[in-house]
Structures are given as C-alpha cells and as structure tokens.
Amino acid sequence: MNRKGKRWKLKRIKIRDRYRLGVYNDTTYEQILYFRLNGRGILITLAVSVFTLICLTTVLIAFTPIREFIPGYPSVETRRTMQQNIQRIDSLENVVAEWYLYIDNYMKVVSGNVPGIAQTSTPEINPSHDAFADVRSNEDSLFRAQIEQNELFNLNMSLRAKSSELLDMYFIAPLKGTITSKFNVAENHFGVDVVSVPNDVVLATLDGTIIMAEWTMETGNVIQIQHSNNLISTYKHNAKLIKKHGSKVKAGDAIAIVGNSGAYTSGHHLHFELWYKGTPIDPEQYIVF
Fold this sequence. Notes:
This protein is an alpha+beta fold and 289 residues long. It has six helices and twelve strands. Among the domains are: 3-66, no CATH class; 158-285, Glucose Permease (Domain IIA) (Distorted Sandwich). 34% of the residues lie in helices and 25% in strands. The strands form two sheets. Strands 3, 4, 5, 6, 7, 8, 9, 10, 11 and 12 form a ten-stranded antiparallel sheet that branches. It has a two-stranded antiparallel ribbon with strand order 1-2. The longest helix is centred in the N-terminal third of the chain and has 36 residues, at 76-111. It is rod-shaped.
C-alpha cells in the first residue's frame, strides 16, 4: 500500500474509533459525568452546535434590541424619524398638488374660463360718441366731467356689480347674527362681519364647488366657493372646516364652524365676502343676515 493509501486508512480508523468525554473530581478523581462518542458522533454534535448557535444569533438579532448595537443598523429612534419624514413628504406632496389645483382653478376664474358657467358679455360703449353733445350747455359739460372724474377714483364698485342676474338668485344667509362691520371698499373691507353664538354652523349661500379650503396666517381657516354667473363667496376666520377642496355643495349645506382664527380677527365672527366678475359687492344688498 502506498503512502497516500496509508493516510486515508489512518483517518478512517480514527473516525470509527470510540471516545469517552468525562468529568472528574480533581481531588478524589471520581468520575462524575461522561459521554461516549465516536468520530462521526463528534462531527454531528459539532455541526448541530454550530447550527444552533447560528439560529440563536439570528433570533437575537431579529427580535431583540441587541441588533441596535450592530454597526450600520438604524436604531428605533432613527427608524421612527425616517417614518415621520416619509409621512411629512407625503403630506407636502398632497399640499403642493392641492395648491397647484387651486392656482389653476383661480387662474381660470380670473380669466373667466370656468367650465359649466355661462359667460356673459357687455356691449362695448364708444366714449367718443355723444348723441347729446349738440344740446348740452357748458355748465352741464363741466358738471358731467367732474362726476366722471370722481367716479373714476371711486373704489366702491358694489352698485356697478349689482345685476339683475344676482337679483333673481336666492341667497341663503351663511350665518344668522349681528353685523358688526359693514362693507366698505374705501377701508379695504370687502365683506361684512357677522357675530353669532360660538360654535354656530356656517352655511353655503348658493350651490357651487369649493375652490379653496385652507388655513392662512391672516384669516385663519378660509373657504371659497365658486358659484354660477361668475360669482364667488368667501368665508373667513372659521374655527373648523367641514368641507374639503373640490367638494360640491348645495345652498344651505354646512361648510364650517364659526370661530376666531387668523391674525386679522378680534373675536368670534364670520367675515363673509361676495365677488361678482372679479369685483367685491355688498352682501347686504342680496342677503338678510
């Protein structure tokens, strides 16, 4: 038998040999515990021990806080912060999408290109044509010029905006109460302030679509509704908004709770505005509060 064959035979004999692993008393040399194993049993025991150790290590890392001590593994606080950041990003994306939609709707409203709303046109007037120029006196001409000059700088456009289209519409009072501040364009107060009991419900004055339902620093919780005939109603300083952006509402539907939100407020009240063809109008001309 060659040298290589002898080595293989020697290893085979050692694997088949039987061994005893014992525990002895160091003083009396009394045998306390012993195990009988052969070479194959030792290998199997070693493999099972390694496998058990791997399983225990995996369980400890997967289901106990020990995994946080592993370099590169995020802690519980880090994972919580990551989850919160993901939620904030999703919320910001939704807010940006709503603002894009609001700006698009606002531009359509300003330009008069609103689907489903009848567009009205006014006949052009040629100011150079005057049929009564030949019968007017000089005093009359001067008086007319003065009136026209004053009218040019008159910011109160409510009478101009008053139209038979609005007179034929039935407005519902958004809030029943006492008017503490009236419509005054000269003071940049483009609506009326209505005071009522706290937590009273604010109603939609007409059928329409909500084009804005947001919180602003100046006027708090604000709702804007696009109605037919190029009419927009605005409700400011609400405590809570009931309807959302893009919702369809009917006249008399609850849309908000009266409140005291925003920097430009001095108490619980509703600031209500009506805009007709881009011009503010006096709500008291059409609504009984």
